[in-house]
Amino acid sequence: MHRMPFIPKPRIGPDQQVEVAMHTIDQPSNPAAAVGLEIVKPPPATPPPAPVSLITTGQTAEPTEINLAATVLAERARWRTRGRLHGAVARLARRRRLSPRIALTALTAEDEHAGGSRDPARKTHVESMLQAVGKQAADTSLARAQRGLDRRARKADRLRAKQARLRIRAEHRARDRVQHPDGGQDTAQMLERDGTALRAQIAAERAGGSRKHGHLPKWIRHIPQLVLVVDFAMLLYFFAGVTDVDWSSPVSADLGFAVLLGAMVTTLSYGFLAFTGYRLRSFKDHSGAIARYELDGLTRAACCAAAGGALVIATLMFIRMRVEVLYALGPQGWVTADVIAVVLAVVSMLANFLVVLVHALDGSDEMARLDAICASASRPLGRAHRMREKSALVACRVAVQQRRADRQAVRAITRAGRHLAVPDLVIEGSRAVHQGAGPHAGQLTDPNDHDHATGYLDDGPRPAADLRPLRQALEHVSSPLPEIPAEAREAAS
What we know:
Layout: H1 14-25, H2 31-35, H3 63-94, H4 100-114, H5 125-174, E1 177-179, E2 185-187, H6 188-207, H7 218-221, H8 223-242, H9 253-281, H10 297-329, H11 334-361, H12 365-434, H13 468-478, H14 486-492
């Protein structure tokens, strides 16, 4: 910036000062008033006092030269003040954030430039400019926070969409078609209702003192599987001796034939024993016993056939074990062979009889049907339950995003309020320096009572920060996604 050369101020006497002041008032065009027409007071209505005559004082001077010199000095002072004001305003316009030092310099230079002729009740141009710069800094801070809130909103939308997908998939899994225990197919949801009704019936009968639906201890329920494995091993050994399997090279057709015979006898005998037990279970009364006088012909025939089969297997065990013991001990050990064979035959019969009893006395037909219903519907209902659980957990994550977004928005509003408060504080400081205009300001608003960024002063004309993006992001974060119409869900299903 071009600076004017400094010229020392000449000394002027008291009478000359009066003449200079009167000459300044009589000037037809006031440069100070021309610079700031909006903030300059109009001239007073009363005429100024008459000028003091220099002749009556007895002094001689050259009024024309003195008036011209004072005019030049005042013009130079105004240009220097205008230069300072121009530089400070230019620096303020280039900055994105307010500098208190430059702002104070601009306000002081403006007061010196306008002089005492400006209206104290009106806001100056530089004060309005400072508040505009503060508003720009507040908008920049809010825009930076807006980007973070937009990310929160997008994440909340993704979480809500995931939650909606999980709920819809859970509803469809509950309506999957599964095999019904009574035949055909039905939805898992309908099977669950049937199971609930059957469970209520069983609970009511148990509450009435019924022992029909009682289960045997868990270790007893596993005895039939153990009997099945032991019978198969013993029959395989016996049939391997019958088919003359060479154990030095066991992989042969003889071993395969022995395995086939053992599996056939074991499977058929175990299956028939289980069938007999299930037939007896259907005649189980509420005392927990089998009503043998109510057995039908098929059940009686199955019991007789099971007893005959167990007797045949026991006889096979007796003969084969007696031969093995006699082969090991010789003819003189026939007593030992008979005893061991009898024991093995009796144990075989007891094992087969125990298989029938376990299947007959363990639970009831209603319990078996309830177990079949639960087995058919457990897989789709289990998947639906896990999806609902994940959906509930997603709701917690959405709530966390909402709380974080609220805190982030409050911090952004607070930072924007600080940017708006700095110009007001600088304006108050400049008024305290030059005491040129305006009353002493106080904090007229409480920022805790409003949802917008508030500064130090609460003037009507001053600019305010734009909070619409913040409100929109908060509304998106806090509001749920629109529900999918029922027609669309039915079309998708």
